Amino acid sequence: MDIAKVIVDVPVRSTDRPFDYSIPEDLRVWTEVGSRVAVPFGHRTVQGFVVSLEYGDVQAVKGIKPIQEVLDLVPPLSPELVELADWMSERYACRRISALQAMLPTALKGKAERLISLGEEPDSAPQGDTLFPDEEFFPVFPGMDRVERAIIEFVRRGGEVTMKQLTRAFPDEAETIKFMLRRGNLQEVQFIKDKMGKKKLKAVDLAMEPETAREALNSMSARSARQKEVLSFLIDMEAVLPMPLKDVLAALQVAAGTVKGLEDKGLIEITEVEVYRDPYRGRDFKPSEPLPLTAEQSAVYGAVSRAVDEQRHEVFLLHGVTGSGKTEIYLQTIRRCIDQGRQAVVLVPEISLTPQMVERFKGRFGSGVAVMHSRLSSGERYDEWRKIREGKAMVAVGARSAIFAPFTNLGLIIMDEEHETSYKQEENPRYHARDVAVRRASRCDAVVILGSATPSLESYYAARSQSDESFAPGLLEMPSRALGNELPAVEIVDMREELKEGNRSMFSRKLHAALQERLDRGEQTVLLLNRRGFSTFVMCRSCGYVAGCPECDISLTYHARSSNLRCHYCGHAEPSPDTCPECGSEHIRFFGTGTQRVEEELGKLFPGMRVIRMDVDTTTEKGSHEKLLGQFRDKKADVLLGTQMVAKGLDFPDVTLVGVITADSALNLPDFRAAEKTFQLLTQVAGRAGRHTLPGEVLIQSYTPDHYSIIHAGKHDYHSFVREELKHRKALHYPPYCRLILVTLSHEQMPIALRMAENFAKTIEGKARQRRWFGSMDKLTADGLDLLGPVASPLPRLKGRYRFQCMVKWRGEIDAIGLVREVAEELEDSLRDPVLQISIDVDPQMLM
Ligand SMILES: Nc1ncnc2c1ncn2[C@@H]1O[C@H](COP(=O)(O)OP(=O)(O)OP(=O)(O)O)[C@@H](O)[C@H]1O
Ligand SMILES: [Zn+2]
Ligand SMILES: [Zn+2]
To answer: Which GO terms describe its biological process (predicted)?
Structure first.
């Protein structure tokens, strides 16, 4: 191969095509499709990806430049992923480079020196070696030849060597080195050494025996209440000391100064400990055996495993009620797949990457599971990713981006809770993991299982109608729970009545009584506060003034802990006012109900009740999510109170009551999916109750108890909800009866932003008319396109930019995405104003 076609990382739309580079002799072995390279571009050196290789006469190409460097010894991407990036670029109207970048773990995005060390000891390494009996050669395979042994010895002596040193010592052995890297005898270590270094952590330990510490505790003055709390906590946790400092801080919500104070008193020690980067290393996962399947499970498993055995591409939509045992189906299907030597990807929403989920997979498949999620450091993520690429893992469990797991023999993709919006990436490239999964699987002859108790209307409609060739899932249903118990009884409480009868509390009398009952019986409760649509803004009750962000035109959010106001979009912060800046009134306070307020209220109503609060504030620390759930499972609390996080995937036997504090706060959002979202959330959270032997009860408090999403959720009636919701969608021309493209144009100057948006809309309209596409929305069967806007975006100003949007609605076989992209590029090219930004969101999930 003489010429490499390279997609370069230059943020201009016109560079979104491959450029030719010649391949110098010494880089030939290393340059492959999927290689990351450094190439000259203009006056700079930029990063790029090799997307194809060609034979050709380099001399004949005018001005061709050579690749400067190959950045990784084993290409981070496979040809299959490179092809997938092409598809993504078209499907989501994004640049190819951003699709390629999205497939890499963050640790690989920088530039790094290549260092090589010995690979990890393979399990099959022979104990002694007859040729070199007293040398600790490692890793030595029986078939290793002399050159390979020499290379191993060279690297072993050096500990870590650079690529240059190695190639200089073995100038003719590039192929051998490459082979040894692939086989895992050698490995790249640059990131561990250079970028992250060894990871160290501050840890806290008692400076004395627990008994002595307890005496000290008793003699401490009452004024050091916080310090006493910390000390007593450490004494209780003695068995697991030393404990990471940040865990102590998170568990007790104390400042670092408090802990430091104890160190100054000589009661505790703060030391640095080194931690390994496998986040799950050293943890025991209870091994689990496959369960005998129920009749419903067997039917589903039969259909799915047949497709897996035949290695034929097929998509299934598994609609199984909460507790129907979908996870067991996943586990057994994966087993089937890996027994055939093929790999499996399991996608879960970020939020449900709970220890429970991880435990279930690690328990069944042990260390063959790589776990990828955003709470891991980039070093940890890189390690997990490398396990996949080097074939040391057969199963990858992760959030959205795990769909790009670099497996080479993919047989199965599972997407749990397929309706979750977190599968859509809300920044470039704006892909949906479900589409990518289906596309990737179709290329690999792999099976896809989309599982949910509340499938998205898009998927369900596609399964029922079978009208879309590229996405027509087979529908599998599991209407009963695996353990044979009933779905919990749901009661809807009309909060308007409560108010009428003089109950101003956030708890209805019913919920109050039910909570008390659980306390008396020693059972547990999950309380959901639906925070979507709620804001904790500051408002003056005298004049109606609302504190807003000067940059973004949205209300600021009150943060109790720091007692200041913050903008959730741009981060602007200011102190919370004591008096109204408009009228001087003192009746200024924050509104809305946050989880903290519910927690306070619970404390007042039920003294002594133990509450675990789980929301963004209490789960920012790594592992905190896990820890809180662990405490709840160990029955260290009576109530688990939280936002959407508590709704999904949890399986606790002693939870017999689920309370929803406000069911309808999200119903009035300007989003056509508001009813669907409300239904999904209520159904999911209701499913947390009575999952084992104890029967469950669900109380949903609502101000609009007659809304169909609430009524049907109350009856666990997915099908009736869908029927009604589809009627609305059809009447109003919303997905799944058409598709949407949301185009947002923004500029620092308002008139320019507006003019560009108008220009964009006019051009689309003109071109669509030429193609005879325009305005045929009323006829459901026709190929047509409609355009709404331009209007000011729901966030009219963000980070100092004015934003306008157009909504393109379309259906049929027309290339609407191509048209939108074409017009956007023309507009950018004609204006040549780098300040203008056009973002294209195909099949948007967030409309506000
Ligand atoms: N075949 C089986 N035999 C016995 N118990 C089972 C079987 N299948 C599942 N279970 C148990 O039933 C319970 C519910 O199963 P699981 O959590 O897999 O349901 P799910 O469909 O994933 O629910 P959700 O959508 O609510 O997360 C679990 O405790 C699980 O161990
Ligand atoms: Zn005022
Ligand atoms: Zn702001």
So the answer is: DNA recombination; DNA replication initiation; DNA replication, synthesis of primer; double-strand break repair
Atom of ligand 1 nearest to the CA of 322: 26
Strand ranges (E), 276-330? 314-320
Q: What distance in angstroms lies between residue 47's CA and the mean position of ligand 1's atoms?
A: 47
Interhelix angle 674-686/718-732, rounded to 10 degrees, is 170
Tell me if 484 is assigned to some domain.
no
CB 731 within 8 A of CB 698: no
Structural domain boundaries, residue 190: 115-196
Task: Judge whether 403 lies within some domain.
Answer: yes
- Ligand 1 close to Cβ of residue 325 (< 6 A): yes
Supply the CATH number for residue 46's domain. 3.40.1440.60
What is the percent of the chain where pLDDT is above 90? 39
- Going from the Cα of 794 to the center of ligand 3, the distance in angstroms, rounded, reads 13
Q: Tell me which residue has tokens 């370069």.
A: 8
Is 95 part of any domain? yes
Assess whether the C-beta atom of 323 lies below 6 angstroms from ligand 1: yes
Is 738 labeled as ligand-binding?
no
| C-alpha 568 to ligand 3 mean position (Å) | 7
641 plus 749 within the same structural domain? no
- Residue 333 sits at φ, ψ, to 5 deg, of -70, -40
Per-residue model confidence as pLDDT tens digits over 408-465: 999 999 999 999 988 999 988 999 999 999 999 999 999 999 999 999 999 999 999 9
Domain count, the chain: 6
Q: Whose CA is nearest to atom 23 of ligand 1?
A: 323
Domain match, 97 and 173 both: no
The mean pLDDT value for 298-311 works out to: 97
The per-residue pLDDT for range 600-635, each reduced to its tens digit, is 889 999 999 999 988 766 776 667 777 888 889 899
- Contact yes or no for 791/753 (Cβ under 8 A): no
HEC assignment per residue over 422-487: HHECCCCCCCEHHHHHHHHHHHHCCEEEEEECCCCHHHHHHHHHCCCCCCCCEEEEECCCCCCCCC
Q: Is 651 in the pocket of ligand 1 (CB under 6 A)?
A: yes
Provide the 3-class DSSP secondary structure of residue 721: helix
Question: What's the sign of the alpha-carbon dihedral 799, 805, 810, 813?
Answer: negative
Annotated binding residue 806? no
pTM, two decimals, is 0.78
DSSP string, 36-72: EEEEEETTEEEEEEEEEEE---GGGSTT-EE--EE--
pLDDT attached to residue 279: 57
- Residue 492 has which token pair? 């809807």
Separation of 580 CA from ligand 2 center, angstroms? 5
Enumerate residues with CB within 5 Å of ligand 3 (an ion).
549, 551-552, 567, 569-570, 572
- Domain identity same for 192 and 204: no
Residue 553 lies in a domain: no
Among 55, 75, 108, where does a domain finish?
108
Domain check: are 715 and 810 in the same one? no
Asked if residue 458 and residue 316 are part of one domain, the reply reads yes
What is the CA(488)–ligand 1 centre distance, in A?
15
CATH number at residue 661: 3.40.50.300
Q: Using the 3D structure, point to which of 458, 478, 498 is the last residue of a domain.
A: 478
648 Cα nearest atom in ligand 1: 27
Q: Both 318 and 384 in a single domain? A: yes
Note whether 497 and 623 are same-domain residues: yes
**Mean of the pLDDT values across residues 691-696?**
81
DSSP annotation of 111 reads: -
Q: Is the CB of 294 under 6 A from ligand 1?
A: yes
Secondary structure letter of residue 390 according to DSSP: T
CATH number at residue 743: 3.30.70.600
